[in-house]
Specification:
Layout lengths: L2 E2 L5 E2 L6 E2 L3 E3 L4 H13 L4 E4 L14 E4 L15 E5 L4 H11 L1 E2 L11 H6 L16 E7 L5 E5 L4 H7 L7 E8 L1 E2 L2 E10 H6 L1 H7 L2 E6 L5 E10 L8 H25 L4 H5 L8 E6 H5 L7 E9 L3 H15 L7 E6 L14 E9 L5 H12 L4 E2 L9 H5 L5 H11 L8 H7 L4
Parallel strand pairs: 4-6, 5-6
Antiparallel strand pairs: 1-4, 2-3, 7-11, 8-12, 9-10, 9-11, 13-15, 13-16, 14-15, 14-18, 17-19, 17-20, 18-19
Helix pairs in contact: 4-13, 10-11
Length: 437
């Protein structure tokens, strides 16, 4: 059965969003998904689509019809002449990585977690790091979706404005059923992780970003330290961490011990500055492995997050202001501030549209007050034409967002064409895009 009327409550990964839809549907194929949308549209009901629930916003909150696409998880065979592959919208990035690896292929760039479905990742402009590479949406060459009238549409690059809008549609244009992705032959990444003084990272930032294929760092509030990660391709055989070192570094230190620090900090916030001094103590580690095993990390400690994209050359100044603001306002922050970089692209609502971008992400441990801190960071990012990640917390509305994207009106035209009656709207999309006509 594709759906049930039994009462169920949906929660996102972070636990800060929930919904009790009237109908919960789990289609197994595109034709069933299409019929569900047609029925909802004819009944005047709204539809929202969910995957793994890794968005922190209310983009997927459904009051009427919830469509869970997790069963649309097929991975096709990579075409060796083009390197392209068709995959179901609901396949998780982790399962996609494994399926591609078995065929000898990989995605050129990934984020640092792999829990999301591919449709959710591209729809929210999810990205990794690497100044010569785009986000995941930039690896899309075509997609199939069901529009607000219940029509199946194949959207390809030669469709111009429609394709550019659909690459990052924030769930407002339709239900994606499958995606065609560009892949690359499988490769090995060597990773060098090491603590570095914050001032040195800032002084050497341009070089660190430019000479490494994938560079990111985590500044630890209340300290003068950052944890850096430099990933570069190698032709040498993989040299993964030993099982014991893997457990110690990636499971115990980055999850178990860090989770304990966060829980202690939540119980006694005054301890956070002292607890923070322990985080850079993991030392330097170098290893290599299949690219997807290096890109993605375990994330068992739950949090809420806000991330802003700003022009690359504004990164050091903006991050310095965030650092000073935390001290001046007396915020007690147990989570590191994550910083990454990508090339620009032309997807209409990509957070990197038209510019090389730096991303500054702030987090707060689940159950810890976050709004005042996030609003202060957002105010700083506004001075650099900051664009919020579509899947993470922010406080902007359509009026403010419109000025951040040169193609805003073009996106709205596509939205009116694909979903003229707002079948895929909810309160969140009405806030960020307007209520429509």
């Amino acid at each position: 059965m594709p759906s049930t009327t039994r009462t169920r409550t949906w929660h996102n990964w972070a636990g800060n969003q929930s919904a009790r839809p009237l109908t919960w549907c789990e289609p197994r194929d595109a034709s069933t998904a299409t019929q569900i949308v047609r029925d909802a549209a004819s009944d005047g009901r709204r539809v929202k689509v969910v995957g793994s629930g890794h968005s922190f916003t209310a983009a997927a909150v459904a009051d009427d019809v919830l469509i869970d696409v997790s069963r649309l998880d097929e991975v096709g065979v990579v075409d060796p002449s083009t390197g392209e592959v068709e995959v179901g919208a609901g396949v998780t990035i982790a399962n996609l990585n494994d399926a591609l690896a078995r065929q000898g292929w990989a995605l050129a760039n990934l984020g640092d977690i792999a829990y999301q479905t591919i449709a959710g990742a591209i729809s929210t402009s999810t990205h990794g790091t690497g100044i010569g590479l785009t986000g995941i949406a930039g690896q899309v060459s075509a997609m199939s979706l069901v529009d607000g009238l219940g029509n199946q549409r194949r959207v390809e690059q030669n469709d111009g404005a429609v394709f550019r809008a659909a690459q990052v549609g924030v769930g407002a244009l339709g239900l994606i059923t499958s995606v065609r992705l560009r892949t690359t032959p499988a490769f090995v990444l060597e990773s060098r992780e090491a603590p570095m003084r914050f001032d040195r990272v800032m002084a050497d930032l341009d070089e660190l970003v430019s000479v490494n294929e994938h560079f990111e760092f985590f500044w630890i509030p209340h300290t003068e330290w950052a944890l850096t990660k430099r990933n570069n391709r190698t032709v040498d055989p993989p040299r993964p961490l030993t099982p014991l070192r893997q457990w110690w570094q990636k499971s115990f230190l980055e999850n178990t011990a860090f989770g304990l620090v966060c829980r202690l900090g939540r119980a006694r916030p005054s301890l956070i500055p002292r607890l923070a001094t322990a985080l850079p103590g993991s030392g330097q580690v170098t290893y290599s492995n299949a690219s997807h095993a290096v890109f993605a990390s375990q994330r068992r400690v739950r949090f809420v997050e806000m991330e802003y994209s700003i022009p690359r050359d504004a990164c050091a100044e903006a991050l310095g202001r965030v650092k000073r603001m935390i001290d001046a306002r007396g915020f007690l922050v147990s989570f590191p501030v994550e910083v990454r970089f990508t090339a620009g692209d032309d997807a209409t609502l990509s957070t990197a549209h038209g510019r090389e971008s730096a991303y500054i992400a702030v987090h707060m441990f689940k159950g810890t007050p976050f709004e005042d801190y996030f609003r202060e960071v957002e105010a700083i990012m506004a001075d650099y034409s900051g664009r919020p990640h579509w899947g993470k917390m922010h406080f902007l509305d359509a009026e403010r967002l419109a000025g951040l994207y040169p193609g805003w009106d073009e996106f709205q035209d596509v939205r009116r064409d694909l979903d003229p009656h707002g079948v895929f709207a909810n309160r969140y999309t009405e806030r960020i895009f307007g209520a429509g006509e």
